[in-house]
Amino acid sequence: MRLVLLLSILLLGACASTRTHDADSSTMVRKLTSYARDLIGTPYKYGGTSPKTGFDCSGFVDYVFRHTAGISLPHTAQQISKRGVPVKSSQLREGDLVFYDTNHQAYSHVGIYLGDDRFVHAPSSGGSVRIEDMRDNYWKKHYDGARRINL
Q: What is the value of pTM for the model shown?
């Protein structure tokens, strides 16, 4: 009887712990996507890594993850594409990273998924951080996949 009671207590504790972790993760994701939205309008700069000087796509993603979740990411979209776990497009969640072939090279561009088929990114020269619709023909045609970084 004591064994059953002990197992019940352990299982209930594990369930509560999972709910707390999920709530913490959801809070972090909201913080991350909110922070990314706050950077809309920051100019594009090749190799850029800060809002003061501008961002390129990977510099933007790394900056957002470092400043909200304390997670540093490499400084190329291709290297970032090897982090986290793959996610099917039908299972995308806010905060996932979405990758595109924009230079005739797989995984040459990265952005942060916001939900509702939208993502935020630092586009090419002359642009600024902005939100795009993944259903637009250009983005659908160049989509390479997605990854989830555990927060």
A: 0.85
User: All domains of the chain, ordered by start, with CATH?
Assistant: 29-148 (3.90.1720.10)
Catalytic one among 21, 75, 121, 142?
A: 121
Which residues have C-beta within 8 Å of that of residue 101, sequence separation ≥ 6?
107, 108, 109, 142, 144
Known catalytic membership, residue 121: yes
104 is catalytic: no
Cα distances from 65 to residues 8, 17, 78, 106, in angstroms, run 38, 24, 17, 22
pLDDT tens for each residue of 16-38: 443 334 556 899 999 999 999 99
**Active site includes 67?**
no
* Catalytic residue from among 21, 104, 109, 142: 109
Q: What are the pLDDT digits (tens) for 93-117?
A: 999 999 999 999 999 999 999 999 9
Identify the active-site residue in 15, 21, 57, 75.
57
